[in-house]
Amino acid sequence: MDTSLGGFYGLGIAPQLLETLETLKFTIPTPIQQKAIPIAIEGKDVIGIAQTGTGKTLAFGIPMLQRLAQQKGRGLILVPTRELAIQVNTALQPFTHALKMSSAVVIGGESMRAQISALSRNCRIIIATPGRLLDHIQQRHVRLDDVQVLILDEADRMLDMGFLPDIQRILKLIPKSRQTMLFSATMPTDIVNMAAAHMHLPLRTEIAASGTAAERISQEIFVVKKNLKDKLLVKLLTQYSGSILLFTRTKRGAKQVTQLLRAARHSAAEIHSNRSLGQRKEALEGFKTGRYRVLVATDIAARGIDVHGIELVINYDLPDDAENYVHRIGRTGRAGREGHAISLAMPEQASDVRSIERLIKTSITLSIHPEFPAERWQVGASTDFRQRRNGGGGGRRPPQRKQHRTTHRSW
């Protein structure tokens, strides 16, 4: 264990949890862990704002488990998606095992009977999606009057998905004397209001400005007509050898792109809400182990995938919401590593690109593939758009893309 300034020592973490961190070879806390853990261990309410992939799970998990080891009661972690629930449970398991605590994952798409059994075994931690948790509450399988620590993970995503009414119903069933920790990548007004209504003088820790993209992720965009997107995609994939996470806007689009990639002899799987939980687990596990090199996903997976070493994120479709762009590309370049993101935009989408650039507070490198026509933004799509073909500059460029030539433009 690193005992130098900046290590996990000195944050107030109990020896048993420090030993687990050492076993896992976690030596240096991430910035959000460095700031949030000491505050949370003191029992204070915390609002943590940080980019995806910065270690938020341990930032709230370690203080929660340490408090539960000292007193009776439960911890409740609410998350927006099934995948994120499973991911959080996996990340916390070494620590729950060390403290001889049990956890229950309560999500849709899995057997109610198995979840009832897990809840009945006096589990100390419940990790749940709001809808399925309410199902269990209504059927009297679980009560929340002993919850001592409440975590709202990816709170902005839960609100985006329409979970606010469910969350408010759950909050009414939890003791007001609880400790509450809210973690999110962005801080929209609805979350500010929620914090004001349900938290006790929360301390805010913000590692990066709300909505900023990870610094070590280089980004580029190709302007391409719709009928050429598939051909350009296949061509781009040949220039990378590592794992690729590809985002589409719709479930139908994910299925079509997966079929396209398989026809081009790329190992690919799809993950979206039309797939069963078993299919989604198989796709994610296959992606982690390398059986599938490309995972095609809708935004349901933008924050529910924690896979180390993703080389490239491709936005086959731009997201409906600019903030989802940040969450998508945050799947690469995690935990301080370098990453790269490519987006395909149609000529009429200049205003969408501009919205993204305003949010991330930087311009995205405009690239032109030598085998495809150089498209201009559609006239009227952005009144002050102009393109300069002066080359050079623009951040890190992966060596695999030498056949591109890159231009830059300002809005």
Topology at a glance:
Elements (H helix, E strand, L loop, with lengths): L14 H9 L7 H11 L4 E4 L6 H15 L3 E5 L3 H17 L4 E4 L5 H9 L4 E4 L1 H9 L8 E7 L1 H6 L3 H8 L7 E6 L4 H10 L4 E4 L10 E7 L5 H9 L5 E5 L3 H13 L4 E4 L5 H13 L4 E4 L12 E6 L6 H8 L9 E7 L4 H11 L4 E4 L17 E3 L16 E6 L1
Parallel strand pairs: 1-6, 1-7, 2-4, 2-5, 3-4, 5-6, 8-13, 8-14, 9-11, 9-12, 10-11, 12-13
Antiparallel strand pairs: 14-16, 15-16
Helix pairs in contact: 2-3, 3-4, 13-14
General description of the model:
The protein is α/β, with parallel strands linked by helices and 411 residues long. It has two domains: 15-206, Rossmann fold, CATH 3.40.50; 217-410, 3-Layer(aba) Sandwich (Rossmann fold). Helices cover 36% and strands 19% of the residues. It is built from 14 helices and 16 strands. It has helices at 15-23, 31-41, 56-70, 82-98, 112-120, 130-138, 155-160, 164-171, 189-198, 229-237, 251-263, 277-289, 322-329, 350-360; strands spanning 46-49, 74-78, 103-106, 125-128, 147-153, 179-184, 203-206, 217-223, 243-247, 268-271, 294-297, 310-315, 339-345, 365-368, 386-388, 405-410. The strands form two sheets. Strands 10-11-9-12-13-8-14-16-15 form a nine-stranded mixed sheet, with helices on both faces. It has a seven-stranded parallel sheet with strand order 3-4-2-5-6-1-7. Helix 5 (112-120) links the parallel strand 3 (103-106) and strand 4 (125-128). Helix 2 packs parallel to helix 3, helix 3 (56-70) crosses helix 4 and helix 13 (322-329) packs across helix 14 (350-360). It is globular. The protein starts with 14 loop residues before the first helix and ends with a strand. The relative contact order is 0.12. The model is unreliable at 1-6, 381-403 and 405-411 (pLDDT under 50).
